[in-house]
Amino acid sequence: WESPDGRPIRQRLLVVANRLPVSAVRKDKDSWLLEINAGGLVSALLVKDFEARWIGWAGVNVPDEVGQKALTKALAEKRCIPVFLDEEIVHQYYNGYCNNILWPLFHYLGLPQEDRLATTRSFQSQFAAYKKANQMFADVVNKHYVEGDVVWCHDYHLMFLPKCLKERNSKMKVGWFLHTPFPSSEIHKTLPSRSELLNAVIAADLVGFHTYDYARHFVSACTRILGIEATPEGVEDQGRLTRVAAFPIGIDSERFIRALGVPQVQKHMKELKERFDGRKVMLGVDRLDMIKGIPQKLLAFEKFLEEKPSWHDKVVLLQIAVPTRTDVPEYQKLSSQVHEIVGRINGRFGTLTAVPIHHLDRSLDFQALCALYAVTDVALVTSLRDGMNLVSYEFVACQDSKKGVLILSEFAGAAQSLGAGAILVNPWNVTEVAAAIEQALIMPAEEREKRHQHNFEHVSSHTAQQWAEFFVSELNDTVIEAQERIRR
Ligand code: G6P
């Protein structure tokens, strides 16, 4: 990508995701306070060779035109473009089809009971809302698209988007990346709208997943459900190829490593060390979501305390459970369940001066989080299924001096990259996780060092920036190859 005089051209990129990477709070009739949530993808797109715009929902309901105009203007300064979704669409599309149907299904938790029959009204109206919402995203993309742009669609919220975009402009370069697992084709088969969704996704030029297994499941679903051909590159339907490949995401590891040198973070670390002096620190950081296996983690910790009384008072589990999707009933039930288990364990094993579990129902700011990662002896990631799980990467990035141990679910995508350094567990097997906790707590320094080194090398050499560059360059190549094939 060079101009005629040899200067590199920044690739124009439209990133489309359900949620914009900002928190928007309305200050006034026509003013908004915005804060950028700097995840890996954001840093990758803002820093690197992309001229990127981000299209998505700002997570707030803005019914009035004055508010919409003001928010659009404020977001433009952050290179973000809003899609306005009203409350009813959010209810049916986001809470309903996305988070009550696709999310649990893609994580092997099945379809909700009342929607098992495709004929129920709620399933049909939620799917209609899903398609309508995807069309609304497409309309905004079309408004901002300039010939030659790369359009990169993200996640399970927008599986219909590639089709909407290609129907309008078959020349548009469209990629789609899934941040969750793609389940076995036998699971996907249970979804009433299984074929419509697959057909919509394969309208893209390039389809990407975190792991090779997810890509393989997707290809099987296409061959078994749609009856189309699998090729070494992906799937082929009536002579049109859709490339399917694995692109494992990473984090901006430098950002975490740099943070550890900041005085405020060091102050936090010192406070935490003093606070938990004499006790080993175990840490869980999760969104409060059923896929994260928080109840299973707590039960394993309870079993460990039951079986190893000598550890009472010598270990503490800090569990940060960030509330999420709180309008969905399943998430409300989970919250009560977790509180009940924490209460029971603290009641059983606590003393007048200390409790074994500190449970927080909120997020931490970046600096406090880095400090916590850095002072942790053992991180516990027990997802029942997880697309990748970047908490495990963040922990590793912050552990260069301590060389703490990572206990990692074999059902997280990260198990495929950090498996050799972590202790891998089946989170459903409480006895196995309890034994892993003990193994991690008593692991000799030499072994910890070796395992950490393995993980640290991976995390620092597979970054979010490289991931984004790789996906976009593969998308450009895929389109060029397809054009050449047509010419031949
Ligand atoms: C997962 C999804 C993301 C989503 C995030 C937070 O990581 O893959 O697309 O943004 O959860 O969930 P929320 O529903 O709050 O956007």
From TrEMBL:
The keyword Cytoplasm does not apply. Its EC number is 2.4.1.15. It comes from the Eukaryota. GO terms for molecular function: alpha,alpha-trehalose-phosphate synthase (UDP-forming) activity; trehalose-phosphatase activity. It is an enzyme of class 2 (transferase). GO terms for cellular component: cytosol. One of its GO terms (biological process) is trehalose biosynthetic process. Keywords: Glycosyltransferase, Transferase. In the C-terminal section; belongs to the trehalose phosphatase family. In the N-terminal section; belongs to the glycosyltransferase 20 family. This is alpha,alpha-trehalose-phosphate synthase (UDP-forming). It comes from Olea europaea subsp. europaea. The chain holds residues 73 to 560 of 919 of the full protein.
